[in-house]
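Homework help board

Subject: predicted structure for assignment chain

Our instructor gave us this sequence and asked us to write out the predicted structure in token form, then describe one feature. I got the tokens but I'm not sure how to describe them. Can anyone check?
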Amino acid sequence: MKLADAFKVINAGPLASLQDAGRFGVRHLGITQGGAVDLHAWAWGNYLAGNAWGASALEVTLVA
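My token output:
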């Protein structure tokens, strides 16, 4: 079974966004790096899910 078949986002809400690896080497052009807040966790999440490097992931901000 693929992860896409087992996980479906119905309503992400305002504290969720899609993030990728960001853009490196373009800061001199005025473009920010962007990407996930925790690049290490994002990379491990993609690895464990079997996704390729650079695949988008749903990033959710948790509020206590």
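Reply (TA_rk): Your tokens look well-formed. For the description, you could write something like this. The longest helix spans residues 39-49. That's the kind of observation they're looking for.
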